[in-house]
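Tokens for chain A. Residues wanted.
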């Protein structure tokens, strides 16, 4: 009698079951359905109480039945749409009522759909549609003969049947694609299911900023081909795919153009771009810049190291920091004649074996052979200026007492530039909550850089995160000692992608007074 899912269930009323029994014996027919919404919550009510309902009160909104199709010989699936533009004031949608009219023009409350987590219906100026599907028992689906949906709107089945008579459907589908129109699949998956943050497969279409603004103030998630997004020029490769997250802050450019993040997690690459006009996007910018060439890698034997330079591949031997510090002492250094470059002395090499050597060392800047020498300062400079991955534990949150919030996977990269005394910082990852309302508050988001520096002097960058009404938002960093902090942040859904974004240039920069 009830279809139960993790987030909602549908119960047939007693009157609905009586009518379904009549349909099963072909003693009656259903000629129309009607959908209504209310803020009254029935999810935790007794099922028998729900089955005994004859009405839903108070009615906050009338919906439109835009599709009814058979799932089996005795069940049908109903699709109802509710447009937020048509409501008088904001409300929480907790329950849907499905009314049925029989061939004698008698209308009854047929079924009740109860939501565990209400959908917030906000009054908006542009069309913003919430779509719901529910399965009901109809006894004999042959006796469900719907001619028109509510408000004299034809059902999708009737529309498709009539269109098939008037135009080649293949040509129509191609026309929609060629002219950048959204078909029913796109509308149902991309618009209708947005409240549940479904990732829609729209891999072959790169929508304009205006299309997203016309779609309303919200966040969309789509599966895209990198080639469609022109990300092949950004290093993804033209055969890959990415998840595209679009934050639309307003219905037109007066509130700012949409902001997009493309993430190809299989390649650990993240890019973002912002609309420049109604029809054009800005260039893609990497959130995690490519690491420079020539970095040293350690082989599987944990001894041999390899580096690719302009002169080809170079190999060497891994030496610990303790050994380098020991060699830096004067007593452990090989001395040579400053005029001839000749060396003639006993050398204890890496603590094992005594050797008598007398090589001639030429100018390392000109010599291309094996006797080039790197100083301790050279080695430490390369180490400090390289990109390094920090322990994700440097990122933490101060939980709000009302919410059960956790930090998901975090990527933390940094690069130290000693000359200008700043750290280039790239952080991306997720925050999530088990809060039943699907939104949460954190009292602080912090990044602890005390293992690297003494004090922060200034910051150029922000923390990107979803904000109110699902729009993109950024929060400026402040600092206390060596810790970056944001203060309180409200997230309007149960999980959120967060990342550091620059205020200028391509990197978030943290300036410091002293390097540890």
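Reply:
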């Amino acid at each position: 009698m009830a279809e139960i899912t993790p987030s909602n269930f549908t119960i047939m009323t007693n009157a609905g079951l009586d009518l379904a029994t009549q349909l099963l014996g072909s003693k009656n027919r259903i000629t129309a359905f009607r959908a209504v919404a209310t803020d009254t919550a029935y999810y935790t009510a007794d099922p028998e109480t729900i089955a005994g309902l004859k009405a839903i009160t108070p009615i906050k909104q009338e919906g439109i039945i835009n599709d009814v199709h058979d799932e089996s010989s005795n069940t049908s699936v109903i699709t109802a749409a509710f447009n937020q533009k048509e409501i008088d004031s904001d409300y929480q949608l907790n329950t849907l009522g499905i009314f049925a009219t029989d061939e004698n023009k008698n209308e009854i409350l047929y079924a009740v759909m109860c939501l565990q987590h209400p959908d917030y219906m906000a009054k908006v100026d542009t069309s913003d549609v919430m779509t719901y599907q529910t399965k009901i028992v109809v006894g004999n689906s042959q006796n469900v003969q719907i001619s028109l949906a509510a408000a004299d709107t034809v059902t999708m089945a009737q529309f498709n049947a009539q269109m098939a008579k008037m135009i080649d459907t293949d040509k129509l589908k191609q026309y929609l694609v060629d002219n950048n129109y959204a078909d029913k699949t796109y509308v149902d998956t991309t618009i209708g299911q947005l409240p549940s943050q479904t990732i829609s497969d729209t891999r072959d279409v790169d929508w304009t900023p205006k299309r997203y603004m016309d779609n309303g103030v919200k966040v969309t998630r789509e599966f895209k081909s990198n080639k469609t997004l022109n990300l092949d020029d950004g290093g993804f490769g033209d055969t890959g795919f990415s998840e595209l997250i679009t934050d639309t802050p307003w219905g037109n450019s007066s509130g700012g153009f949409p902001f997009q993040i493309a993430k190809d997690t299989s390649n650990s690459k993240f890019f973002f771009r912002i609309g420049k006009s109604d029809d054009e996007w800005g260039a893609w910018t990497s959130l995690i810049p490519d690491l420079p060439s020539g970095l040293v890698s350690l082989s599987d034997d944990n001894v041999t190291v390899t580096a690719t330079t302009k002169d080809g591949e170079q190999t060497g031997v891994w030496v610990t920091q303790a050994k380098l510090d020991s060699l830096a002492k004067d007593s452990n250094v090989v001395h040579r004649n400053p005029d001839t470059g000749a060396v003639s002395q006993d050398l204890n090499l890496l603590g094992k074996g005594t050797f008598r050597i007398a090589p001639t060392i030429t100018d390392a800047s000109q010599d291309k052979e094996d006797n080039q020498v790197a100083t301790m300062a050279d080695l430490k400079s390369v180490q400090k200026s390289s990109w390094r991955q920090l322990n994700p534990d440097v990122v933490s949150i101060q939980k709000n007492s009302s919410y059960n919030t956790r930090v998901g996977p975090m990527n933390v990269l940094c690069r130290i530039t000693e000359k200008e005394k700043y750290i280039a910082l790239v952080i991306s990852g997720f925050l999530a909550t088990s809060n039943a309302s699907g939104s949460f508050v954190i009292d602080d988001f912090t990044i602890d850089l005390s293992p690297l520096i003494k004090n922060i002097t200034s910051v150029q960058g922000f923390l990107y995160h979803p904000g109110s009404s699902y729009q993109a938002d950024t929060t400026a960093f402040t600092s206390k000692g060596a810790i970056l902090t944001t203060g309180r942040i409200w997230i309007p859904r149960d999980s959120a992608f967060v990342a550091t974004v620059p205020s200028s240039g391509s990197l978030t920069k943290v300036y410091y007074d002293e390097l540890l």
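The CA atoms of residues 213 and 290 lie 32 Å apart. The longest strand covers residues 107-121.
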